[in-house]
Amino acid sequence: xxxxxxxxxxxxxxxxxxxxxxxxxxxxxxxxxxxxxxxxxxxxxxxxxxxxxxxxxxxxxxxxxxxxxxxxxxxxxxxxxxxxxxxxxxxxxxxxxxxxxxxxxxxxxxxxxxxxxxxxxxxxxxxxxxxxxxxxxxxxxxxxxxxxxxxxxxxxxxxxxxxxxxxxxxxxxxxxxxxxxxxxxxxxxxxxxxxxxxxxxxxxxxxxxxxxxxxxxxxxxxxxxxxxxxxxxxxxxxxxxxxxxxxxxxxxxxxxxxxxxxxxxxxxxxxxxxxxxxxxxxxxxxxxxxxxxxxxxxxxxxxxxxxx
Length: 308
Fold this sequence. Notes:
Blueprint: H1 2-36, E1 49-52, E2 57-60, E3 76-79, E4 82-85, E5 90-98, H2 107-112, E6 117-125, E7 132-134, H3 138-147, E8 151-158, H4 163-177, E9 186-190, H5 208-223, E10 228-233, H6 234-240, E11 250-254, E12 268-275, E13 284-292
């Protein structure tokens, strides 16, 4: 009897030990299987967009509060080498922008060629010494364009390095346009003078000041009763300005080519630096202005006729 009991206890212990070993092996197998499963891949570009910054394709985190370009590539087609907008959302106007570099212009011929508007350089700040200068052809150009029924706007080529200089530039502009009827926004055109290198007064300028200068210029113009705007190319638009600080102003985008592949929305697209048109002997910049179409308001539903 005692031997039977011992054998029974031995059997129970052996069974328990075997179960423990089996459970341990199961756990080991499950852990090994889990460890072999690939971890969920984390997308390093989550929330980013793939854009052309003018030098190549890069990932970018979009700014908050800045409208996105809603013009698709199929909205732009070329007729006789000239881009046309064929989408549904905008009316467009075709325009030139000119300076003393175009010399004497036959504005009657320009108007007859179908040009709707002209941006005229009013003046500039020197990129070495920083002096302010009126464009030698400003008066002739604005008066010639106006007298031939072309809508006009002006731009100032800035090399401001602080807020005080930007305000000075705006005042310089305001003094010279008060006698004219300006149809279009007054544009602030700050450009990096790469070709001048270390000779440029803006060389290695901290880009943080660019927003301050643009805002100072635009707000000064706005207080005088004019609509302000900012001109930029891809590089300045992506890496120079913080467009979320400037999105209350009009945007003039310089992206020469067949399509304005800029991520953010804009109002004017400068599509060429070297177009030839009647009335201007030298190659000139050409632009398309996009004017949103006014969507018709839904007609109010007829009021229900009360029962008699």
